[in-house]
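We now fix the convention by which a protein and its fold are recorded. Think of the row as the fold of the chain written in a discrete alphabet. Here is one such record, which you should read through line by line.
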Amino acid sequence: MSQKFLKEHADVVEAVLRGTVKTNEWIHSNQDKAKASANARLLADTGKGLDPKVIDPAWPSISVTDDPLAATLKTQSEWAVKAKLLEKPDLAGIYDLTLLNKVLKAAGKPAVSDAGLGAK
């Protein structure tokens, strides 16, 4: 999403973020239903769901979060540069978490960090 779109449609972006935060809350509160729903979607999209022997032990390893994990992006980009997989990218301003943090605050949740990669 561009900064232009964000400025022109902040209300739409905020509504999507509210929906995402509520969905993530539902997933955390309804693990069995969320797992069944995800598997049903796999079945619908691919014609094959995951066997319970696969999905049941794997599901607890899935972490659903509202945090875009900016620090992780920063670290992974540094590793990619060190491994000579890419030139040093300019990640400055890649995140604008203003609306996300507004939605999180309204939901009584802590703010998330842009790890110094926030839009100015």
Residues 66-120 form one domain. Helices lie at 3-8, 10-29, 31-46, 52-58, 70-82, 98-106. The chain has two domains: 1-64, 66-120. The chain has a mean pLDDT of 94.
